[in-house]
Amino acid sequence: MYERIREKLGILADAAKYDVSCASSGSNRKNENKGIGDAEGAGICHTYTEDGRCVSLLKILLTNHCIYDCAFCVSRRSNDIRRAAFTVEEVVELTMNFYRRNYIEGLFLSSGIFKNADYTMERLVRIVKKLRQDERFNGYIHLKTIPGASDELLREAGMYADRMSINLEMPTERGLKLLAPEKSHSEVEKPLKYIQNNITQFESEKALIKSVPKFVPAGQSTQIVVGATTESDKEILYTANAFYRNFSLKRVYYSGYIPISYDSRLPVIGSQPPLIRENRLYQADWLMRFYGFKVQEILDDLHPNLEIDVDPKLGWALRNLDRFPVDINTADYHMILRVPGIGVGSALKIVQARRFNRLHENHLRKLGIAFRKARHFIRYADSPMQLKEYEAGHIKNLILSEGKSKYQSNPDNQLSLF
Amino acid sequence: MELYIFDGSLEGLLTAVFECYTRKSKIIKLVGQAHYVPDVFDAGFHVVSDREKGERVWKGLCAKLGKEWQLRFYQAYLSERPEAFQHLLNFARYVIDRPAGASENYAHPDVLAISQTARQVHREKHRMEAFVRFQKTGDGIYYAHIEPDFDVLPLVSEHFENRYADQRWIIYDLKRKYGLYYDLEKTEEIELGAAPQLSVVNALPAGLLDPKEELYTLLWQDYFKTTNISARKNTRLHVRHVPRRYWKYLSEKQR
Ligand code: SF4
């Protein structure tokens, strides 16, 4: 008995791990029924895998049987692997027992498609319904939408899930058609639109009636696989940007492709996943969401790809030296935010602290900015006299030579955000 | 400079602030009883903790500080660091002597030190919310123990009460020898006569545990292993997020 459940968990967690979305925040589900769990506020990472990713949800597939054959997916029909499927009760029990021991924030449930879309979706809905109603579970639930499922089932799922998502997979229709001829971007857009409309409708009803139930309170997200096909960073980010705008997504995840197939259309097994590129895309995504950058400022036809040696914020600054230096003591907040080496937190502290003192170098260092990087782009109370203006290439070299350890000798390819 | 010695309690610290004003002391060096080494030349002034004086100071501070800074003050205190006590005293006097808003002056050394210490304490509180691993006992109580660097139990009780409202639980601080017990109604501080002797996977002797406990520990360890993507292995990043000093309390790190 023990062995069977351990085996299933092994197979179905292994197959689910390539979905990189992990957030468990952004919901507003409180424990108000003296039940169990609380999904309000920021999520918690209960541990980290040895590859450094946050473990916050029990991320599993209901089954890895699938009638489709998408080349980039381990569960594809033509793959010769062991198959398994959980029962509804098994998923509920695992979730509750992991949650009660404080291992997880909730459940991330996805599935291969067995029989047909509705048959699969219906089971997913049964699980979430049981968790919410029978177990009085208020933890976080992220439910993967099954492409092609009916509107009624989507709507029912939305009554219980905190977040829903459906993956774009390849950044363009052309890329997707190459690897998954049975799929299309439009079949992702349809459920995203449907859920989005329902979210808006529930919101507007909430303004009138207080007791409207929650509907996907943490919104929707999607995932784009990077490096399986040949799209440029520009194509990836412009697609992400369009989806942020058209479907009010909460997050777009970028997943560096890890070769799992001998299919000749895909990178060969054993090639390194493009981790630096993935990290650059996340940095660029942050610039769009938190730093007020337009996607066109980050990439255009002249610069279709993000640079590997500098982060996108520094790259932008070097291309726009005429906007600098920025005077820390007078510039407006949004421009301070654009200085390489200054994050949202320190930008806020700067505008608060300068009400009391004119800020000097030692203040700035203490406020936690990356001073060695920022100093090329700012003026402050005791700035040294600048004899000549450096040009971009020179500044870049200075920064790179000072930050050597961070940008070059980095065997594990993981960089921090800015 | 005058030397003040206090008993290490928050009430004592606030009383010390009060005494600065009554005794018109200018520059104070504040030390906790535990760290005080008697000095032949400087007997020092022994602060006698006084509820009423402490409360008056706290009220005065609250009038000048927003909710966020009140919390930071408390968090910095829970760091149990001798230098934090000094900063708290200086900070309190600085804030009381000035119009409201002075606490936003991050260029001031005490303001900065407290905001940084508070952040460290906050981070550790957050880590404890993440890293507590309950084990279900035979009587259905979920038990976990921790050894945090700072005294964060008072900061985490609300979190666990909200989350685990329908199960009884104990979180025990082995280092400070006290814990929290939630009995479905309220949370109380408790001391265990003999703190259970612990190996970690079975924090409690197997006989005290629910028969299914072993299975869930195993499943969790399995899950931790299978969800890793070895092509992305990155030990440095892993250790940055899960500092080694916490490993012995994490069941997933026991294999
Ligand atoms: S439909 Fe989903 S599970 Fe099935 S092969 Fe395609 S990506 Fe994989």
UniProtKB/TrEMBL annotation, chain A:
What Gene3D superfamilies does this protein's entry cite?
Answer: Aldolase class I, Photosystem II 12 kDa extrinsic protein
Query: What InterPro entries does this protein map onto?
Result: Aldolase_TIM, DNA_rSAM_put, Endo/Exo/Phosphatase_dom_1, rSAM, rSAM_sf, RuvA_2-like
Q: Listed GO molecular functions?
A: catalytic activity; iron-sulfur cluster binding; metal ion binding
Residue ranges of every copy of the Radical SAM core domain listed in the record: 61-198
* Keyword S-adenosyl-L-methionine tagged: yes
Keyword set, alphabetical order: Iron, Iron-sulfur, Metal-binding, S-adenosyl-L-methionine
Q: Does the keyword S-adenosyl-L-methionine apply?
A: yes
User: Which cofactors does it use?
Assistant: [4Fe-4S] cluster
What NCBIfam families does the annotation carry?
rSAM_link_UDG
**Name this protein carries in UniProt:** DNA modification/repair radical SAM protein
Species of the source:
Dyadobacter sp. 676
UniProtKB/TrEMBL annotation, chain B:
Q: What is this protein called?
A: TIGR03915 family putative DNA repair protein
Residue ranges constituting the DUF4130 domain according to the UniProt record: 83-252
Q: Native species of this protein?
A: Dyadobacter sp. 676
Superkingdom classification of source: Bacteria
